[in-house]
Amino acid sequence: MTEEKYILRVENIKKAFGTNQVLQGVSVNVRKGETVCFIGPSGTGKSTLLRCINQLTIPDSGKIFLNDEEVTHAGPRINYFRQKIGMVFQNFFLFDHLTAVRNVEIALLKVKKLPPKEAREKALYELRQVGMADWADHYPAELSGGQAQRVSIARALAMDPEIMLFDEPTSALDPELTREVLEVMKKLALQGMTMLVVTHEMGFACSVANKICFMEHGHIKEEGSPAELLNNPEFERCKAFIGEFREYSQ
Amino acid sequence: MALEILIDWFPYLFSGIVLTLGLVAAALIIGVGLGLPLALGQVYGTLPVRFIISIYVWFFRGLPVLVLLFLFYFGLFPALGLDLPAFYVGAIVLGLWGAAYQSQVFRGAIQSISEGQMTAARSLGMSRFQAIRSVILPQAMRIALPGWSNQYPEILTESSVCYAIGVAELLTRSSQIVSQTYVTMPIYLACAVIFILLSYAGTSGIHILEKKIAIPGFGPGGS
Amino acid sequence: MDQITFILDVMVPAFESGLLMTLALVAVTAPIGLLIGIGVACGRVYGGKGLSWLMQLYAIFFRGCPLLLLLFILYFGLPSIGIVFTPFVASVLGFIFCNSAYNSEYIRGSIISIKEGQLIAAKALGMTRNQAIINIVLPQALRRSIPGISNEFIYLIKYSSLAYMITVIELTGASKLIATKYFAYNETFFAVALVYLALVTITTFGASALEKKFAIPG
To answer: Is C207 an interface residue toward B (CB < 8 Å)?
Structure first.
């Protein structure tokens, strides 16, 4: 047993929707500063896993620990944990009735209870980090997909989370817009943020991730560094999946 | 001659207009004050809560306002020992009746807000209550406004039924002028015109409000 | 007198005759209100400037004027210029004006929502404008208006109670007379409430069934 501390421990998570066993006992440990990418065919439980981590989906069994504090079964304390776990969604889910800066600041005001001046400063700072400071007073309907997603990243970052979860952040974006979002995510990773990313962007996964997990049918079938997986995948399905990517990228 | 009568009796008629508008205002305030919690209860409440609310809505939408007025004025309030003047009975009944309809408008609006908004709010650590208050309701109220604004002309016309329990609103006073002066058609028609103008003025006012609070790209059609 | 006797010997017969009157009022009003509503809607959409404006005035007046006031005008007002209606006729007329005005709004909205292309295609096949309207647009528009029209029908059942205010003894009137005579306010009014709730609920289910029956996929 290694002495290293894990910032996030996911132990044997199971989840079924009706008769569909989406997660069949998934375990993964993440160290601080690591970027872990989850890849695999659609519908294999990757998004569900992420949503179990911040309890947006309640798992049927298993435990999750953030800094050795148990997140599962936290009851109303879950709101405290959610401040420490940032999440970015495929469809951004920006608050449509608020401008960009208000979107970033609202949780600071209501959840962290910061004074308005401080909240506004922090919000503008985060918008600058993602390159959206000039769009602070625009409404979500006025932003392109890539811009909206960057604002939603800023919104999650403003809470100073310990880890960031990205649920297919670029799947809803056109290829040109995907790049600007991946750039922001890359920058975050280099700055040392602990990130769990569900994605189909193999290029990103291979260049930024410390660890890639290949999931299928509710299990992590294969796990390893990008180099290991790319060059020497053991599991057949993973081979095929990555093989397609290599062919395409050639 | 009719014009002279109208001018002579105008102050009398005017108090009728005030009472009518008072009834409408009370009904709208109670309608929102009760209708909104009812809607929230139907969307976010537990099964017994939802059941009770749907019974309430079924009852108040299934009955004529006239029957409700008779029921409350002659039956329920006296039985409860309440000796309320007719105006208050009228205002309360119209309010309860309006709340039943308005709750459904609000409910539709709340349910039309995409699930993702709540998801995002909760993921930031907001409690359900905070999310409803800061994210769902501000959007839902804007979406509900056009549908809700239909309530104004409806309540305005229904308020005239309070004649049946003796509230001295616009229709009652017009009728009294008719019976005292024997001038019928001009008075009644003037009364109709006043109602139509009140309806138009209110609806226009609400349209102006709608434009003022509009958000770019946001509306009943979705963003 | 005890409750059961009261209910059986007094309430039921009175409610029966009152209910029959209510149903009569509704049965006469509904078809005529629908036909006139269709006419007014067509007049507004397809009529020339004058007709369209006139129909708009019709809709504005009869929707903005409270129904009770309308009934007073028809029953108490018109005699002063020589037109006298019986209470029943005055009630039905008032209901028809009101019902048709609201129906015309629903139908007008539906007609407008039928794509222009339908009319053009019909004309391209050689139909006259009127043929196209009657055979292509109206059937579709009426189908789309079913929710609105049935909603208005339910309102009609409820506002038929106002006929009592011009001396027609329909259901509400019957209940008021009994309640006052026997000092049994709560019992009588709750009982009549149940009757109205039953009427409205049955009609609502009927309307849903009607909608489903006429639904076209897509």
So the answer is: no
Chain A touched by B215 (CB under 8 Å) = yes
Chain C hits for B58, Cβ within 8 Å: 197, 201
> Whole-angstrom Cα distance, residue B25 to residue C149?
29
Nearest to C111 by CA among C46, C170, C162, C52: C46
Q: Which of B125, B135, B215 sits opposite A79 (nearest CB)?
A: B125
What are the extents of the domains in chain C? 3-214
Minimal Cβ distance to A111: which of B126, B138, B217: B126
Note whether C182 contacts B: Cβ–Cβ < 8 A. Answer: no
Judge whether B143 and B109 are in contact, CB under 8 Å. Answer: yes
Rg of the Cα atoms in chain A: 18
Instruction: State whether residue C67 sits within 8 Å of chain B by CB.
Output: yes
When scoring B188, B198, B199 by the number of chain C Cβ atoms within 10 A, the one with the most, hence best to mutate, is B188
* Interface test mutation site (partner B, options C185, C202, C204, max chain B beta carbons within 10 A): C185
A184 with A150: CB under 8 angstroms?
yes
The verdict on a CB contact (< 8 Å) between B116 and A159 is no
d(CA B184, CA B172): 13
Phi, psi of A69 (to 5 degrees): -100, 140
Backbone angles phi, psi at A218, to 5 degrees: 80, 10
Q: Please spell the DSSP secondary structure of B105-138, one letter per residue.
A: HHHHHHHHS-HHHHHHHHHTT--HHHHIIIIIHH
Please report, for chain A, the start and end positions of each structural domain, with discontinuous segments joined by +.
Answer: 8-249
Q: Looking at the domain A8-249, which fold is it?
A: Rossmann fold (3.40.50)
Q: How far apart are CA B80 and CA B57, in angstroms?
A: 22
Query: What does the alpha-carbon distance between residue A222 and residue A46 come to, in Å, rounded to a whole number?
Result: 13
Cα distance between the two ends of chain A: 41
Query: Could you report the predicted ipTM of this complex, rounded to two decimals?
Result: 0.89
DSSP chain B: -HHHHHHHHHHHHHHHHHHHHHHHHHHHHHHHHHHHHHHHHHHHS-HHHHHHHHHHHHHHHHS-HHHHHHIIIIIIHHHTT----HHHHHHHHHHHHHHHHHHHHHHHHHHHS-HHHHHHHHHTT--HHHHIIIIIHHHHHHHHHHHHHTHHHHHHHHGGGGGGGT--SHHHHHHHHHHHH---HHHHHHHHHHHHHHHHHHHHHHHHHHHHT-BTTBSTT--
Exposed, middle or buried by CB within 10 Å (0-12, 13-18, 19+), for B146?
Answer: middle
| Burial zone of B197 (CB within 10 Å; 0-12 exposed, 13-18 middle, 19+ buried) | exposed
CA-based nearest residue in chain B for residue C158: B64
CATH of range B2-212; options 1.10.540.10, 3.30.360.10, 3.10.20.90, 1.10.3720.10: 1.10.3720.10
- pLDDT per residue, tens digit, chain A (250 aa), is 455 689 999 999 999 998 889 999 999 999 999 999 999 888 778 999 999 998 988 999 999 999 999 999 888 888 889 999 999 999 999 998 889 999 999 989 988 999 999 999 999 999 999 999 999 999 999 999 999 999 999 999 999 999 999 999 999 999 889 999 999 999 999 999 999 999 988 889 888 999 999 998 888 888 888 888 877 767 666 767 666 666 655 4
Q: Do B195 and C69 touch (CB under 8 A)?
A: yes
Architecture category of domain C3-214 in CATH: Orthogonal Bundle (1.10)
C161 touches B at CB < 8 Å: yes
List b or e across A203-226, with b for residues whose CB sees 16 or more CB atoms inside 10 angstroms: ebbbebbbbbbbbbebbbbbbbeb
Contact B64 C196 (CB under 8 A): yes
